[in-house]
Amino acid sequence: MSVRLRVNPILCDGHGLCAELFPERIALDDWGYPIIDHSPIGSKEESHARRAVDACPTLALALVPASAPRPSASAEGGE
Amino acid sequence: MTTRGEALRHVAVPAPDALPRLLAGVRDDRRPVSLAEHLDREGSPPVGRGGGAHAELIELVCASGLSGRGGGAFPTGQKLRAVAEQGRNPIVLVNGVEGELISSKDHVLLAQVPHLVLDGAAVAAAAIGAREAIVAIGAGLTRGYAAIETAIAEREHRRVDRVSFRLVRAPDRFVAGDETALVNFVDGGPAKPTFTPPRPYERGIRGIATLVQNVETVANLALLARFGPRWFRALGTAKEPGTVLVTLGGAVRRPGVYEIPLGLPLRELVVWAGGPSAPIRAYLIGGYFGTWVAAAEADALALLDSDLRTVGASLGARAIVALAETSCGIVETARVARYLADESAGQCGPCVRGLDAVATALAQLATGKQSQPRLQRWLENVSGRGACRHPDGAAHFIASALHVFADEAAQHAAGSCSGSDGPVLTVARKRRRVE
Ligand SMILES: Cc1cc2nc3c(=O)[nH]c(=O)nc-3n(C[C@H](O)[C@H](O)[C@H](O)COP(=O)(O)O)c2cc1C
Ligand code: SF4
Ligand code: SF4
Question: Which domain holds residue B252?
Fold first, then answer.
């Protein structure tokens, strides 16, 4: 099952640690909050992704099934 | 399905192409329609006190093509089905927050035809098998609150409904109308959005599947259950059937709430409102999450999502403002941008920091100070990065202003402004409602 990254912006406090650990998929905006690449993560990269998830001090970052609806991405949030 | 304690009252089906529908019962003196008056006009409530979920009602709503009137335009039948599939005893939550300052349409329904709203909530409850329906009303909508309170008492006295109603006063904040914020508030928390999933239809009030539906959406259900999907579809288009309430403000002679068939040309709506009161520069379509459209382009548009999409717009919250040529779109937008930034629920970094930075940059532009080269990037960066769609809506609105008022923006950067009017778009918490 392929996975992707998802951040809970309410929990995230912009440590930026995740972007340091997984710069291939996580950039930071001008205020230090992560901009996540939502495309599926291949098996080669999965361990990097997992390391970033584990390092997040607020448990804001998660790996979810690639098919999971994106928060606030569709008109009704993926109903 | 009959009501107990009184004879079933039938009324003639109104002509399917007659307007208004939702506002047909409105009294000349604008006082709330009483239960007796309501029954005389509309006939007995379409659902009585029989128990269980009524799949046939869901089928009927699906067949009608009704979509949500709260801004998202999600198919209502599909949402009813999704909630019903979650299991027994779901809850109905009627969203009467109307956080949009330039919209009055939900307040008109609540304050003037309260029984139509409650009938519709009862239909929704019957469709999904809910025993509890909560009506949440924005704190500023005092006449609507009082009318619904009285209407619930009238119905309880005459034992009209199977579902039991509860009335909640919601904070008068823009974001309080987001469905997850409203559920959070009804549950005793702050009126701030929560991370999704789960959505309220999966897990809402007290963890129970909750159908959140806009006031106007449920008012439509009341008529739909009485008169059927074919009647409903006689107005509007095949893809976007029915009527919608539009709050029209700004430079028109008779601003107010109008019930229009979907697909009415914008030009025609302005005629209904007595015509422009001054030459028009642009229209804001869809409220403060909406889109500025230049007058030359807007005049040809039909009020229909499929048509508005061609200019990057949508009906959204169906509040429309006509901006006179003597008003400045940049100044107007800058004021609302600051308001929207301040209305952020303060939970998500990109929304809090991003909208603040954007609003500050617009204020600089409005006052002719140095323009901010990063503004465009910031607008792109805040979209889709919050727990709710507040930053998306705000960014879309502001981006459309920079596009439509590009000349004005350039003029501002050079230190001048063509606007001479006072403020048009209100940001005062105390609403200046047009009804
Ligand atoms: C920031 C924000 C504010 C909202 N405010 C309202 C509101 O005041 N009233 C409303 O009905 N829907 C509002 N919505 C939409 C609701 O989340 C929800 O989609 C709607 O109530 C569903 O009802 P409907 O399907 O009948 O339109 C808002 C959404 C967002 C993101
Ligand atoms: S590590 Fe966690 S808290 Fe820090 S920026 Fe990344 S997601 Fe946010
Ligand atoms: S995106 Fe903004 S308004 Fe929405 S929950 Fe986050 S901070 Fe609040």
Answer: 243-324
